[in-house]
Amino acid sequence: xxxxxxxxxxxxxxxxxxxxxxxxxxxxxxxxxxxxxxxxxxxxxxxxxxxxxxxxxxxxxxxxxxxxxxxxxxxxxxxxxxxxxxxxxxxxxxxxxxxxxxxxxxxxxxxxxxxxxxxxxxxxxxxxxxxxxxxxxxxxxxxxxxxxxxxxxxxxxxxxxxxxxxxxxxxxxxxxxxxxxxxxxxxxxxxxxxxxxxxxxxxxxxxxxxxxxxxxxxxxxxxxxxxxxxxxxxxxxxxxxxxxxxxxxxxxxxxxxxxxxxxxxxxxxxxxxxxxxxxxx
Length: 281
Known about the structure:
Elements: H1 2-15, H2 17-34, H3 36-39, E1 58-60, E2 63-65, H4 76-112, H5 114-128, H6 132-143, H7 147-157, H8 159-173, H9 177-184, H10 189-225, H11 237-244, H12 253-280
Antiparallel strand pairs: 1-2
Helix pairs in contact: 1-2, 2-4, 2-12, 4-5, 4-7, 4-8, 4-10, 6-7, 8-10, 9-10, 10-11, 10-12, 11-12
Protein backbone atom coordinates (compact mmCIF):
# COMPACT_ATOMS: atom_id res chain seq x y z
CA UNK A 1 0.00 0.00 0.00
CA UNK A 2 2.80 2.44 0.92
CA UNK A 3 4.65 1.66 -2.32
CA UNK A 4 1.50 2.29 -4.35
CA UNK A 5 0.93 5.66 -2.67
CA UNK A 6 4.57 6.65 -3.25
CA UNK A 7 4.26 5.79 -6.93
CA UNK A 8 1.07 7.83 -7.11
CA UNK A 9 2.82 10.85 -5.59
CA UNK A 10 5.77 10.67 -7.99
CA UNK A 11 3.46 10.13 -10.94
CA UNK A 12 1.48 13.22 -9.93
CA UNK A 13 4.68 15.25 -9.65
CA UNK A 14 5.79 14.15 -13.12
CA UNK A 15 2.44 15.26 -14.50
CA UNK A 16 2.50 18.64 -12.73
CA UNK A 17 5.38 20.93 -13.68
CA UNK A 18 4.16 23.51 -11.20
CA UNK A 19 4.14 20.98 -8.37
CA UNK A 20 7.56 19.65 -9.33
CA UNK A 21 9.12 23.11 -9.41
CA UNK A 22 7.47 24.06 -6.12
CA UNK A 23 8.66 20.90 -4.36
CA UNK A 24 12.14 21.38 -5.80
CA UNK A 25 12.34 24.95 -4.47
CA UNK A 26 11.06 23.92 -1.03
CA UNK A 27 13.45 20.96 -0.87
CA UNK A 28 16.36 23.21 -1.86
CA UNK A 29 15.52 25.74 0.87
CA UNK A 30 15.20 22.93 3.42
CA UNK A 31 18.59 21.49 2.47
CA UNK A 32 20.20 24.94 2.63
CA UNK A 33 18.67 25.59 6.05
CA UNK A 34 19.73 22.22 7.45
CA UNK A 35 23.28 22.41 6.11
CA UNK A 36 23.85 26.13 6.80
CA UNK A 37 26.82 25.63 9.19
CA UNK A 38 28.67 23.60 6.54
CA UNK A 39 27.82 25.45 3.31
CA UNK A 40 27.97 29.02 4.61
CA UNK A 41 31.16 30.59 3.23
CA UNK A 42 31.56 33.11 6.10
CA UNK A 43 30.40 33.81 9.61
CA UNK A 44 27.07 35.67 9.14
CA UNK A 45 27.69 37.79 12.25
CA UNK A 46 31.27 38.80 11.56
CA UNK A 47 31.66 42.51 10.81
CA UNK A 48 34.50 44.12 8.84
CA UNK A 49 33.97 47.79 8.06
CA UNK A 50 36.96 47.77 5.72
CA UNK A 51 34.95 45.76 3.17
CA UNK A 52 31.52 47.33 3.73
CA UNK A 53 29.15 47.73 0.76
CA UNK A 54 31.30 45.70 -1.62
CA UNK A 55 29.60 44.58 -4.84
CA UNK A 56 28.78 40.94 -5.64
CA UNK A 57 31.87 38.93 -6.56
CA UNK A 58 34.22 40.95 -4.37
CA UNK A 59 37.21 38.92 -3.21
CA UNK A 60 38.56 39.63 0.23
CA UNK A 61 41.44 38.01 2.05
CA UNK A 62 39.06 35.31 3.33
CA UNK A 63 37.35 34.45 0.04
CA UNK A 64 34.80 35.55 -2.54
CA UNK A 65 31.65 37.35 -1.42
CA UNK A 66 29.31 36.13 -4.16
CA UNK A 67 26.40 38.37 -3.11
CA UNK A 68 28.57 41.21 -1.84
CA UNK A 69 28.72 42.66 1.66
CA UNK A 70 26.33 44.85 3.64
CA UNK A 71 26.80 48.19 5.41
CA UNK A 72 28.65 46.46 8.26
CA UNK A 73 30.90 44.35 6.06
CA UNK A 74 28.98 41.12 6.67
CA UNK A 75 28.69 38.56 3.89
CA UNK A 76 25.19 38.73 2.41
CA UNK A 77 25.20 35.16 1.05
CA UNK A 78 25.96 33.76 4.50
CA UNK A 79 23.24 35.86 6.10
CA UNK A 80 20.72 34.67 3.50
CA UNK A 81 21.67 31.06 4.15
CA UNK A 82 21.26 31.43 7.90
CA UNK A 83 18.15 33.55 7.41
CA UNK A 84 16.46 30.57 5.75
CA UNK A 85 16.76 28.68 9.04
CA UNK A 86 15.00 31.47 10.91
CA UNK A 87 12.15 31.73 8.41
CA UNK A 88 11.53 27.99 8.24
CA UNK A 89 11.82 27.48 11.98
CA UNK A 90 9.31 30.22 12.77
CA UNK A 91 6.86 29.23 10.03
CA UNK A 92 6.91 25.50 10.78
CA UNK A 93 6.56 25.91 14.53
CA UNK A 94 3.91 28.65 14.32
CA UNK A 95 1.82 26.70 11.80
CA UNK A 96 2.18 23.55 13.93
CA UNK A 97 0.75 25.40 16.94
CA UNK A 98 -2.02 26.99 14.88
CA UNK A 99 -2.93 23.71 13.18
CA UNK A 100 -3.01 21.77 16.45
CA UNK A 101 -5.26 24.31 18.16
CA UNK A 102 -7.46 24.86 15.13
CA UNK A 103 -7.96 21.19 14.30
CA UNK A 104 -8.86 20.26 17.87
CA UNK A 105 -11.27 23.20 18.20
CA UNK A 106 -12.77 22.50 14.77
CA UNK A 107 -13.32 18.82 15.56
CA UNK A 108 -14.90 19.52 18.93
CA UNK A 109 -17.14 22.39 17.83
CA UNK A 110 -18.27 20.65 14.66
CA UNK A 111 -19.06 17.38 16.40
CA UNK A 112 -20.59 18.53 19.69
CA UNK A 113 -22.14 21.82 18.46
CA UNK A 114 -24.14 23.61 21.17
CA UNK A 115 -22.65 26.25 23.45
CA UNK A 116 -19.08 25.09 22.78
CA UNK A 117 -19.54 25.82 19.09
CA UNK A 118 -21.12 29.22 19.78
CA UNK A 119 -18.34 30.35 22.13
CA UNK A 120 -15.42 29.46 19.85
CA UNK A 121 -17.07 30.69 16.67
CA UNK A 122 -17.85 34.04 18.29
CA UNK A 123 -14.20 34.26 19.39
CA UNK A 124 -13.22 33.52 15.81
CA UNK A 125 -15.55 36.24 14.53
CA UNK A 126 -14.06 38.75 16.98
CA UNK A 127 -10.52 37.92 15.90
CA UNK A 128 -11.39 38.08 12.20
CA UNK A 129 -12.94 41.50 12.78
CA UNK A 130 -9.44 42.93 13.28
CA UNK A 131 -6.99 43.19 10.35
CA UNK A 132 -4.59 40.30 10.90
CA UNK A 133 -1.32 42.17 10.38
CA UNK A 134 -2.43 45.04 12.66
CA UNK A 135 -3.40 42.53 15.34
CA UNK A 136 0.00 40.86 15.09
CA UNK A 137 1.83 44.20 15.23
CA UNK A 138 -0.16 45.26 18.29
CA UNK A 139 0.47 42.03 20.19
CA UNK A 140 4.17 41.85 19.31
CA UNK A 141 4.59 45.50 20.33
CA UNK A 142 3.26 44.59 23.78
CA UNK A 143 5.10 41.30 24.39
CA UNK A 144 8.33 42.41 22.69
CA UNK A 145 10.16 41.20 19.56
CA UNK A 146 11.85 37.81 19.86
CA UNK A 147 11.73 34.51 18.00
CA UNK A 148 9.82 32.78 20.80
CA UNK A 149 7.23 35.55 21.06
CA UNK A 150 6.68 35.65 17.31
CA UNK A 151 6.16 31.88 17.15
CA UNK A 152 3.67 31.96 20.02
CA UNK A 153 1.77 34.99 18.70
CA UNK A 154 1.55 33.69 15.12
CA UNK A 155 0.59 30.24 16.38
CA UNK A 156 -2.16 31.41 18.71
CA UNK A 157 -3.64 33.91 16.24
CA UNK A 158 -3.57 31.45 13.33
CA UNK A 159 -6.00 28.85 14.73
CA UNK A 160 -9.11 30.47 13.27
CA UNK A 161 -8.59 29.39 9.66
CA UNK A 162 -7.97 25.77 10.60
CA UNK A 163 -10.89 25.69 13.05
CA UNK A 164 -13.44 27.05 10.61
CA UNK A 165 -12.44 24.75 7.75
CA UNK A 166 -12.31 21.64 9.95
CA UNK A 167 -15.62 22.56 11.58
CA UNK A 168 -17.36 22.97 8.23
CA UNK A 169 -16.16 19.55 7.08
CA UNK A 170 -17.07 17.87 10.37
CA UNK A 171 -20.58 19.30 10.21
CA UNK A 172 -21.04 17.41 6.95
CA UNK A 173 -19.20 14.25 7.98
CA UNK A 174 -21.06 13.80 11.27
CA UNK A 175 -24.27 13.08 9.34
CA UNK A 176 -22.68 10.43 7.11
CA UNK A 177 -23.60 6.75 7.31
CA UNK A 178 -20.23 5.54 8.59
CA UNK A 179 -20.51 7.82 11.64
CA UNK A 180 -24.03 6.55 12.34
CA UNK A 181 -22.81 2.97 11.98
CA UNK A 182 -19.88 3.63 14.31
CA UNK A 183 -22.25 5.00 16.95
CA UNK A 184 -24.53 1.99 16.54
CA UNK A 185 -21.56 -0.31 17.17
CA UNK A 186 -20.91 1.41 20.46
CA UNK A 187 -17.96 3.63 19.55
CA UNK A 188 -17.35 6.50 21.95
CA UNK A 189 -17.05 10.15 20.97
CA UNK A 190 -13.25 10.10 21.25
CA UNK A 191 -12.92 7.15 18.89
CA UNK A 192 -15.30 8.69 16.37
CA UNK A 193 -13.52 12.05 16.44
CA UNK A 194 -9.92 10.86 16.21
CA UNK A 195 -10.29 7.59 14.26
CA UNK A 196 -13.05 8.54 11.81
CA UNK A 197 -13.39 12.31 11.52
CA UNK A 198 -9.74 13.36 11.83
CA UNK A 199 -8.45 11.16 8.94
CA UNK A 200 -11.18 12.54 6.69
CA UNK A 201 -10.18 16.16 7.30
CA UNK A 202 -6.42 15.51 7.21
CA UNK A 203 -6.05 16.23 3.48
CA UNK A 204 -7.61 19.68 3.77
CA UNK A 205 -5.47 20.44 6.81
CA UNK A 206 -2.26 19.47 4.99
CA UNK A 207 -3.06 21.74 2.05
CA UNK A 208 -4.06 24.60 4.35
CA UNK A 209 -0.93 24.17 6.47
CA UNK A 210 1.26 24.41 3.38
CA UNK A 211 -0.36 27.66 2.30
CA UNK A 212 -0.22 29.01 5.85
CA UNK A 213 3.55 28.40 5.95
CA UNK A 214 3.98 30.79 3.02
CA UNK A 215 1.80 33.38 4.73
CA UNK A 216 3.69 33.12 8.02
CA UNK A 217 7.03 33.52 6.24
CA UNK A 218 5.72 36.73 4.69
CA UNK A 219 4.30 38.01 7.99
CA UNK A 220 7.56 37.26 9.83
CA UNK A 221 9.55 39.09 7.14
CA UNK A 222 7.16 42.04 7.40
CA UNK A 223 7.53 42.20 11.18
CA UNK A 224 11.32 42.03 10.92
CA UNK A 225 11.23 44.76 8.27
CA UNK A 226 9.31 46.98 10.67
CA UNK A 227 11.69 46.20 13.53
CA UNK A 228 9.16 44.07 15.41
CA UNK A 229 10.49 40.68 14.36
CA UNK A 230 13.81 38.97 14.91
CA UNK A 231 16.10 41.37 16.79
CA UNK A 232 19.54 42.07 15.27
CA UNK A 233 22.16 40.82 14.70
CA UNK A 234 20.36 37.50 14.04
CA UNK A 235 20.21 36.98 10.25
CA UNK A 236 16.71 37.17 8.79
CA UNK A 237 15.38 38.08 5.37
CA UNK A 238 13.03 40.82 6.58
CA UNK A 239 15.81 42.48 8.54
CA UNK A 240 18.08 42.32 5.50
CA UNK A 241 15.42 44.09 3.44
CA UNK A 242 15.13 46.77 6.10
CA UNK A 243 18.90 47.29 6.11
CA UNK A 244 19.02 47.47 2.33
CA UNK A 245 16.27 50.03 1.78
CA UNK A 246 18.60 52.87 2.79
CA UNK A 247 21.14 51.84 0.15
CA UNK A 248 18.68 50.78 -2.53
CA UNK A 249 19.99 53.22 -5.17
CA UNK A 250 23.68 52.94 -4.33
CA UNK A 251 24.10 49.32 -3.20
CA UNK A 252 21.20 47.45 -4.77
CA UNK A 253 22.45 43.99 -3.76
CA UNK A 254 21.70 44.54 -0.05
CA UNK A 255 17.94 44.25 -0.60
CA UNK A 256 17.80 42.44 -3.95
CA UNK A 257 19.22 39.06 -2.98
CA UNK A 258 17.26 38.68 0.29
CA UNK A 259 14.13 39.81 -1.59
CA UNK A 260 14.68 37.21 -4.31
CA UNK A 261 15.22 34.51 -1.68
CA UNK A 262 12.01 35.47 0.09
CA UNK A 263 10.04 35.61 -3.16
CA UNK A 264 11.27 32.24 -4.43
CA UNK A 265 10.61 30.52 -1.11
CA UNK A 266 7.04 31.81 -0.86
CA UNK A 267 6.44 31.05 -4.54
CA UNK A 268 7.73 27.49 -4.09
CA UNK A 269 5.58 26.84 -1.02
CA UNK A 270 2.47 28.20 -2.77
CA UNK A 271 3.13 26.11 -5.88
CA UNK A 272 3.57 23.02 -3.73
CA UNK A 273 0.35 23.86 -1.90
CA UNK A 274 -1.53 24.17 -5.20
CA UNK A 275 -0.21 20.77 -6.27
CA UNK A 276 -1.22 19.19 -2.96
CA UNK A 277 -4.72 20.64 -3.35
CA UNK A 278 -5.04 19.10 -6.81
CA UNK A 279 -3.51 15.83 -5.61
CA UNK A 280 -5.99 15.35 -2.76
CA UNK A 281 -9.07 16.36 -4.76
